[in-house]
Specification:
alpha/beta, Dihydrodipicolinate Reductase, domain 2, six-stranded parallel beta sheet, six-stranded mixed beta sheet, 344 residues, 29% helix
Length: 344
């Protein structure tokens, strides 16, 4: 027995990572179907070390008989096809921003709020949070359980892979252009990304924040606690894979560094690497390809009565997208919310 799984957006960076993650974790699938737009139909994508899947046309695919749909095709495509899949009985786990803030759709990080999965049957859709939010709330959850969090100030250092394959190509091409003295004209970003940092991710909003910064605030409140205040500054940096965050947390009651270290070391999904010496911390390069959320540079923040600061790093394509989606599917099975129905 097993589950029939559809991976939507299978030719994209996240879709390929989902296929890789399903194979690595030996997900109990009786069949895995790769779906993408009509122009990608017929292409081949890898599933595990040996299997190769031929991509099928999403627009023509019938989701009846499909148990789980792992969606990462872009918000506009999910808006059309996720409800269509859900209506056909497929449980949709959507990695786009389309459904995250809809009140009757759970927004889930399995290490943080797995109980929210019980709400999925209202729409048959579960939303995967923003990549930068996921890694932050995984690190915040064990601290919030010790001393309730009042306020979070975070600055992110987000890799270009968060903007897709074309953005990764732009960083590569611009970096090469610098060395051969060619012009580096930005197309995917508003300014050159090679050897540069851009404090602008997603569109600007009326209050001067960007949509990415707004997402971190509202998603944290929906996932972790509606009373937490969050202010974010989100920056695109010339790194291919991996997001980093400098996080400053103000608590309602006292919390010591030792208490925080112990809680983080015991927390699921967190790995503490915090030696107060040269190189005693994790960077984006080291986090690439890893499942964990790495926490380093934990220390007291003396500017507020009960404050801590830390450095947080994770692979945005894995825990920030593919792995979290697959973990949601695994949690559905573990909680008995979706039953095996089809023989392998």
């Amino acid at each position: 027995m097993g589950y029939r799984v559809a991976v939507v957006g299978a030719t994209g960076a996240v879709g390929r990572e989902i296929l890789k993650t399903l194979a690595e974790r030996d997900f109990p699938a009786s069949e895995v179907v790769a779906l993408a737009s009509g122009r990608s139909a017929g292409q081949e994508v890898s599933f595990g070390d040996k299997a190769v899947l031929k991509v099928q046309n999403l627009e023509k695919f019938d989701f009846h008989g499909t148990d789980i749909g792992l969606f990462s095709p872009g918000a506009a495509v999910s808006a059309v096809h996720a409800p269509r899949a859900a209506a056909a009985g497929c449980v949709v786990i959507d990695n786009t921003s389309q459904f995250r803030m809809e009140p009757d759709i759970p927004l889930v990080v399995p290490e943080v709020n797995p109980h929210a999965l019980k709400q999925f049957s209202k729409r048959n859709i579960i939303a995967n949070p923003n990549c930068s939010t996921i890694q932050m709330v995984v690190a915040l959850k064990p601290l919030h359980q010790l001393a309730r969090i009042r306020r979070v100030v975070v600055a992110t250092y987000q890799s270009v892979s968060g903007a897709g394959k074309e953005a990764m190509d732009e960083l590569f091409n611009q970096t090469r252009a610098v060395y051969v003295n060619d012009p580096a004209t930005p197309e995917q970003f508003t300014k050159p990304i090679a050897f540069n940092c851009i404090p602008h991710i997603d569109r600007f909003m009326e209050d001067g924040s960007t949509k990415e910064e707004w997402k971190m605030a509202v998603e944290t409140r929906k996932i972790l606690d509606p009373d937490i205040a969050v202010i974010a500054t989100c920056v695109r940096v010339p790194v291919f894979i991996g997001h980093a965050e400098a996080v400053h947390v103000e608590f309602e009651s006292p919390i010591t560094e030792k208490q925080a270290w112990e809680a983080l070391r015991e927390a699921p999904g967190v790995q503490v690497v915090d030696r107060r010496e040269d190189g005693g911390y994790v960077t984006q390069t080291e986090a690439a390809g890893e499942d964990a959320v790495f926490v380093s540079r934990l220390r007291r923040d003396p500017t507020v009565p009960h404050g801590l600061a830390f450095w947080c790093v994770s692979d945005n394509l894995r825990k920030g997208a593919a792995l979290n989606a697959v973990q949601i599917a695994e949690a559905l099975i573990a909680q008995g919310l979706i039953a095996e129905r089809r023989a392998a």
